[in-house]
Amino acid sequence: MVSATDPEVQELKPGSRGLKVTLQRMGVDATEALYVGDRPDVDAVAAARAGLRCVIVGRSGEPSQDGWYGVPSYRVCKKQMFT
Fold first, then answer.
1. Distance CA 44, CA 27 (A)
2. pLDDT tens digit string along 48-78?
3. CATH classification of the domain holding 29
4. Which residue range(s) make up the domain with 40?
5. Has residue 23 been placed in a domain?
């Protein structure tokens, strides 16, 4: 678990430090990860800053001009991305 209050983070989203620390702790490269969020103004921005692909749940099913992909529900995200 990583928190914005962790000493090596000390930053809220849309800052990317928390996501970068999470990737580092997991030993995963950003190119191998997918960030799933619900707020383009916070989650998609943080993901882009960390170099992560991003899906925003609760949005239309097409790519945005800002680089994230919208899905209407988590169930649709899971079906489209992981099957």
1. 22
2. 999 999 999 988 766 777 889 888 887 766 6
3. 3.40.50.1000
4. 17-82
5. yes
The structural domain count of the chain equals: 1
According to the 3-state scheme, what is the secondary structure of 15-83?
A: CCHHHHHHHHHHCCCHHHCEEEECCHHHHHHHHHHHCCEEEEECCCCCECCCCCEEECCHHHHHHHHHC
pTM of the predicted structure, to 2 decimals: 0.84
Angle ∠(56,59,40) on CA atoms, nearest 5: 45
**CA angle (68 as vertex; 82, 39 as ends), nearest 5:** 100
2 found inside a domain? no
> How do residues 3-46 score in pLDDT, each as one tens digit?
999 999 999 999 999 999 999 999 999 999 999 999 999 999 99
